[in-house]
Every structure is written in C-alpha cells, then in structure tokens.
C-alpha cells in the first residue's frame, strides 16, 4: 500500500481548539483527555522528544526518582529511542490502557503519531497499549512492578508486552507500534 501523506497533528491552526488537555488521571499521575469528539483514525498528537541510542537511554537516570519503573522512552523502528524527558510534549503524559482508544504508529518520516483507534468522546482519557519491552524474566516481582491500573473490564494486569517474554537488555521502553503500512483502521 503506498504511504499516505497526512497533516502533522501539530499543524492544527493556531486558534483551533486542541483535541486534548493534560490533567490528573484516575489511572496514574497526569493523563491526557479529549477536549472534543475525535474521529476514528484521526491523528491526535506526535510523541516528541530527543532521539537517542538505546545505549544512551540505558545510561539515563530514572525519569521519576520515586519510581524506577516510570518511563518516558519510546522505541523506534530504527532501534533508537525517543526520550520525552527532554523536549517532550503532552503526548508523554498519555497513560497505558489494555483496551485503549488510541494507538501509536510510526510514519514514513520516522515520527511517532498517537492516533484514535476508535471514535473518542469529549472527556475520555486517552490511552494506548504501551507493550513495554522490559529486560529480565517475567517474575512475580517484575510483573508487580509493571502492574496495570487502567481499570478496563479486560485489563490484562500488566503494561508489559505480552508477546515478548524477555528482552535481551536495556531499559523499559514503550513499543508495539502499528507500522503505517499495516494500519487498517484508516
Ligand atoms: C510517560 S508516564 C505517563 C504519565 C504518568 N501518568 C505520569 O504522571 O508520569 C508513564 C508511566 O506512567 C505510569 N502508568 C501509565 N499508565 C499506567 C497504568 N495503566 N497503570 C499503572 N501505571 C501507569 C507508569 O509508571 C509509566 O511508566
Ligand atoms: Zn490494564
């Protein structure tokens, strides 16, 4: 399928009402909420931040000194990582959900875009499946460290990627993006 050209979410006219706002979340800390109805397949926000190697990401201090399992890192198809702790935008506050209303994808220019997986009502909290890639055996301790509190009826209880039993090394990173060419919801 040929790559689609699309409007950058940040290219929204300056006075248009933003589709989202950041406030406290019942899931965890801050979250991002729809300020208006968002259509299925709509691009909502780019996941921004500096791009660094996985090795550089591994050497970073914890993004939350009170929670070593907190992460602002998003893995890219080229093996690098977006560190939203530096030059990050509102997308970094979107929480994980097991039955999410959003899904990230990487476009042809290597940007990670958070798009609506289904129609979203004004006021709904935005969420996508982090599918966290975490080093180490899936011990009870690791599972507890990455326990999910999304509250959805079919919560799987974990933010970890169910398809990956054990990552070779490195820090926890969000991943599991739908490649642009495989996206069927548009
Ligand atoms: C990039 S932050 C998202 C914003 C976060 N709420 C905050 O205030 O920092 C990602 C972190 O939020 C927490 N988090 C996100 N979704 C969660 C969920 N469904 N259950 C438990 N913790 C969650 C985890 O600590 C995760 O590493
Ligand atoms: Zn869940």
Task: Provide structural commentary.
Residues 1-5 have low confidence and may be disordered. Helices cover 6% and strands 21% of the residues. It is globular, with a radius of gyration of 16 Å. The chain has 186 residues and is mostly beta strands. The strands form four sheets. A four-stranded mixed β-sheet has the order 3-9-8-11, with no helix packed on it. Strands 4-6-5 form a three-stranded antiparallel β-sheet. Strands 1-2 form a two-stranded antiparallel ribbon. The structure holds S-adenosylmethionine and zinc ion (ZN). Zinc ion binds next to loops.
Strand content: 15-25%
Please give the radius of gyration in angstroms.
Answer: 16 Å
Total number of beta strands: 11
Sheet having the most strands: 4 strands, mixed
Question: Tell me, what's the shape?
Answer: globular
Question: How would you describe this structure in keywords?
Answer:
single chain, 186 residues, mainly beta, four-stranded mixed sheet, three-stranded antiparallel sheet, 2 helices, 21% strand, globular, binds S-adenosylmethionine, binds zinc ion
Quick summary:
By secondary structure, the protein is mainly β.
């Amino acid at each position: 399928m040929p790559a689609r050209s699309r409007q950058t979410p940040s290219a929204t006219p300056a006075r248009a009402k933003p589709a989202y706002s950041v406030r406290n979340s019942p899931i965890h800390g801050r979250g991002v909420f729809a300020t208006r109805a968002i259509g299925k397949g709509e691009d909502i926000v780019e996941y921004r931040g500096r791009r660094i190697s996985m090795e550089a990401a591994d050497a970073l201090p914890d993004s939350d000194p009170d929670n070593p399992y907190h992460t602002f890192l998003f893995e890219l198809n080229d093996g690098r990582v977006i560190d939203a702790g530096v030059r990050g935008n509102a997308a970094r506050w979107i929480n994980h959900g097991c039955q999410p209303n959003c899904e990230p994808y990487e476009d042809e220019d290597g940007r990670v875009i958070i798009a609506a997986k289904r129609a979203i009502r004004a006021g709904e909290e935005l969420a996508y499946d982090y599918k966290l890639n975490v080093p180490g055996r899936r011990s009870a301790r690791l599972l507890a460290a990455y326990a999910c509190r999304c509250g959805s009826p079919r919560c799987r209880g974990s933010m970890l990627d169910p398809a990956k039993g054990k990552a070779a090394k490195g820090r926890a990173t969000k991943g599991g993006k739908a490649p642009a060419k495989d996206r069927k919801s548009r």
